[in-house]
Amino acid sequence: MKKLWNLLIMLTVVFAGCNKTDDLWDEVHDLQKRLTKLEIQANNLNGNITALQELYRNGATITTVNEENGAYTITLSNGKILRVVQKMEETIYPMVGIDSEGYWTVRYGNETPERILVGNSPVKATGEDGLTPEFRINEDTGYWEIRYKTSEQFKPVEDSNGHPVKAEGTTDTGFFKSVNISDDGKSFHLILKDDTEITVPIVGSFSCTFEESVTGIQKFTSKESKNFKILLNGVDDIALMACPAGWNATLSEPLDNEAILTVTAPEALTTLTRATASNSTDISILANSGKFSTILKLQVEVIAEEPVEPAIDYLSIYQKGETLFTIGDGAGAIEINSTNFPVSQEIDLSETDQTLEKTILAPSQPTIYFLSGEHILNITMDGDQAMNGKKVVFISKSATEKPNLNFSGTGGIRLQQNSSIVFKNVTIENLSMGNYSSTGNAHNVWIGDCNINAPAKSILALTGTNAPLGGINSLYFKNNYIDMSKFPDKSSIFNIGSLITTDVTNVSIENNIWYKKGTLLQGSIYTSNAKGTTKNISFSNNTIINYAGNSSNSLAAAYLVMTNVENVSIKNNIGYSDDNVTDGFSNSGSSFYIIANIDPMPSISIADNIVYGLNPDLTNKWKWNTYGWKTNASTKVNQEGETNGIITRYSKNPFAIPGGFDSGNFTPIPELAGKGANLK
């Protein structure tokens, strides 16, 4: 192959300098043909070796033989298909045989056959420890190489003098002395170069095979049971011969030319490592038809299961006095434990739905509600509920479930100074949070590992009209799945209004899936028109499906819209829309951010974001943009490698299963590992 490559390079150079290239092209074509022939020879050789091993075994029986141009296709009575090629091309190739004691032999040219050695020991061709040598021709060197297991590296073949054997021309073109079918059609006859004779009966009316779908090694998990249908033709009797240690196998009585083999794997990984034709890992079945017999084998293996980590029991952790997690930052950080949240309440939803009043949002002491069960906890919001200084956590009792929490009614949760609200590992419907007149911020809004079902309005809207209004210290929104099917067009998930004069210390919107099925929706995820400053915002590893950071010419929008901000990080997100979707657009596509301020001048980092879809055929519209059209000129930053605020669409669909969103598959293709959300 290297020689062919070198010739092609040489030909390119010569072609640039003159027109007489015929000789070089002839050499290239000859070499191509030569390499093709060598590959065919290696394949034919390995096919002959496999056939030789199978046919040499006692009990082999043939169902059919078809011959075409010196190549025989053989179907054994156990369903295996072999190929025997009598005439080989004029190439020195290993003359492989089996001696009288069942060991592999090999000779090159006119040498005397010698046993093939592995680690100075001869190699059995028959029996339960038999190995099948595999040969190939090294494309770079033209020499023969050999191995005995697919897990091994190929090694050079050496002759009796220790010299490597080159695949060169010879006048000896036959792998066998002769190959033929007897005149009466009842046997298949082979004579090897060393005069070893092999005769195998042909019994067309006798076969014992598995269904066609049963191929290769059958893999089982611990204690798993499977049934395998066996097809019988002309079988007088059938019996189970061998089963690996620790396995269980039973064979049904034949009925209508069929039998069922039931196999159960051991409880643990106690089986031996699989070896070809080994009773320790093969289930063997003997079928007889008169004086003929065949052995049908099923190779089985227990696969290592992924270790199952014990389910996290949040209630037990809390009861032990340990910290579940920490919310907030710096001096405002709060550890979620029994010290800081001395009151807890278990809410069991396993039998039926439960309904509680909104006052559970305003307990006298910091409280954790542990939810469990598949039914719904309805919190009646017949009006707004203030949380002045209150601290409440809603969390699943166990990490294995996400209990349902529904806020029913027209009222909302009103955050006030020093309050904190936490949702962890629950399914939330109709969540609406706002603010009241207040002289200070709420501490924390923390939502993690939740499913947010079809919000019909902003989750957080600090947009009151009676100043002074309190804001929030930190917003944490991570590892959530958000169904955007009912979210209104041209709205924002989180909205910090213009009357907020206090600062937001940290905003983390990370590792979330935002999914809108069908028609494209446009709007924002985080909007802050506050007079206060968003100190730090991280928007990373989000997967955003059919939700564009866009609005209309009268109201600029992007995924992030900020009047005052200090530090912005936008990394590793995947923005996606179904191909050629333009519904609802009146502007120039989808943008990641809009920043209006220049005092203080923000620090902006935007990198490694992947975009796909919209309508690539309309060059002046439906673009993916780094920044939106109302961004201050001084804050316009390009993604690395891009220009003019445009992010180039990815060359192909970034998801491993296009169209798999409805079934919950949002996994990126392997080359985009680390991009977008990673939710289990």
TrEMBL record:
Q: Name one Pfam family in it.
A: DUF4988
Q: Which PROSITE patterns match?
A: PROKAR_LIPOPROTEIN
> Which keywords does this chain's UniProt record carry?
Coiled coil
SUPFAM superfamilies (alphabetical): Pectin lyase-like
User: Which InterPro entries is this protein grouped with?
Assistant: DUF4988, Pectin_lyas_fold, Pectin_lyase_fold/virulence
What does the organism's lineage look like at the top?
Bacteria, Pseudomonadati, Bacteroidota, Bacteroidia, Bacteroidales
**Coiled-coil blocks:** 28-55
What species is given as this protein's source?
Answer: Bacteroides vicugnae
Q: Where is the DUF4988 domain?
A: 24-201
Under which name does UniProt file this protein?
Answer: DUF4988 domain-containing protein
